[in-house]
Amino acid sequence: MKKKPYLIEFPKIGDSSIGFISVVEFEKLLPFRPERVYWTYYTPESIVRGRHAHHNTEQVLIAVSGTILVHIETIEGELYSYKLEKPSQGIYIPPMAWHTMQYSHTAVQLIIASSKYDEADYIRSYDAFCSLKNNI
Ligand code: TYD
Question: Quick check: 10 pLDDT over 80?
């Protein structure tokens, strides 16, 4: 059975009178050991980012500000859609999952990844992804 996407609820400490802290202690809430953190911002609303899968990299995606629409297709052909709009939530994206993201104007996306950047880990052609899908 391949790994599947799922929603992660991070602790939310505080209340609306003083504000909130969310936190991820890696070994408690992540299914992998992080090697890299990166963030994206100022993405125009008309742009669809992602459009790739990774051979091995696992990621957790968090909308620390704004709203992010995430569509995921697993290598087994299952489709998942999420609307991320709470800074206390994240989406786990497993390896071999085609994913796309669209952002509200104010969105800041934080990504925790299981590996360093390596272009060879990307599958950037949807046709190539579908061929792999047909071969499982
Ligand atoms: P990419 O992962 O394709 O971004 P998105 O899925 O958001 O569209 O990366 C876009 C470009 O940035 C690509 O040329 C690779 C580069 N990049 C790095 O150099 N290091 C990184 O850690 C990441 C995530 C991307």
Answer: yes
